[in-house]
């Protein structure tokens, strides 16, 4: 098992796991050089054949084939795609499905990947959220779409992301987030210390989930500090890890 974390949300009446998820890191893949080794993104300059093999292995973590995996072409917005089959969905930062046997994959390298499920209702989601997505409200948009499809009791797992200490930003960035977000969210996401601004995207995502009544597990590792993970801030030319979920 090369995933850095994995688990299940909920149980079927027969005792089997309802929604399986996994978070990947750098280990276990076929890419070389800056993309070593489990890069899951096609758009970062890596060899396409290596990425395809890495996606095949990642689909296998949840017992599926590459063709069953829906992956978002993230744009740092709040658009949500509802899917019923595998494939690339451009222009969205969240994917939702109520289909069985379809996996959803969110890619990131410092931004927050997260997965959500209401196993009882049979609705799952995967989300990519950086500081822009936090302000744009992609987490709330994904949850609203899940609820439209019948989700009631939603659980979440928040994946590896850059920590606040490693994420100093221009002051304009926290200022724009404070304008976009209610203070109960921006007060935890935006940090000003010794004249420098920092963003804690993970804390912001967790606060948004809590405000929606959703409890979350955390895969609490900093991408910038762990050499087991891809970090755009650290390496610039690098791969993307992922979080995958299926029911
Ligand atoms: Zn850090």
From TrEMBL:
InterPro entries: Cu_polyphenol_OxRdtase, Cu_polyphenol_OxRdtase_sf, Cytotoxic_necrot_fac-like_cat. Keywords: Hydrolase, Metal-binding, Transferase, Zinc. GO terms for molecular function: copper ion binding; hydrolase activity; S-methyl-5-thioadenosine phosphorylase activity. The keyword Lipoprotein does not apply. It catalyses: adenosine + phosphate = alpha-D-ribose 1-phosphate + adenine; adenosine + H2O + H(+) = inosine + NH4(+); inosine + phosphate = alpha-D-ribose 1-phosphate + hypoxanthine; S-methyl-5'-thioadenosine + phosphate = 5-(methylsulfanyl)-alpha-D-ribose 1-phosphate + adenine. SUPFAM superfamilies: CNF1/YfiH-like putative cysteine hydrolases. Belongs to the purine nucleoside phosphorylase YfiH/LACC1 family. This is Unannotated protein.
């Amino acid at each position: 098992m090369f995933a850095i974390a994995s688990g299940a949300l909920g149980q079927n009446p027969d005792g089997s796991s309802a929604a399986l998820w996994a978070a990947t890191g750098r280990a276990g893949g076929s890419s070389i050089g800056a993309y070593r080794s489990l890069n899951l993104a096609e758009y970062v300059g890596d060899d396409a054949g290596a990425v395809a093999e890495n996606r095949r292995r990642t689909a296998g973590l949840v017992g599926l084939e590459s063709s069953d995996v829906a992956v978002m072409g993230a744009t740092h917005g709040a658009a949500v795609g509802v899917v019923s089959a595998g494939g690339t969905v451009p222009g969205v930062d969240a994917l939702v499905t109520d289909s069985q046997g379809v996996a959803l994959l969110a890619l990131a390298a410092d931004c927050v990947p997260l997965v959500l499920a209401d196993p009882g209702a049979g609705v799952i989601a995967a989300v990519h959220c950086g500081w822009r997505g936090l302000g744009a409200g992609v987490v709330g948009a994904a949850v609203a779409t899940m609820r439209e499809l019948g989700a009631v009791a939603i659980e979440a797992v928040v994946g590896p992301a850059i920590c606040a200490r490693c994420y100093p930003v221009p002051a304009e960035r926290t200022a724009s987030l404070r304008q976009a977000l209610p203070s109960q969210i921006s007060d935890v996401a935006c940090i000003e210390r010794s004249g420098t601004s920092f963003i804690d995207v993970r804390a912001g995502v967790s606060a948004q989930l809590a405000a929606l009544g959703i409890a979350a597990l955390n895969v609490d590792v900093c991408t910038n500090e762990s050499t087991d993970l891809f970090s755009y801030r650290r390496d610039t030319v690098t791969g993307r890890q992922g979080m995958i979920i299926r029911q």
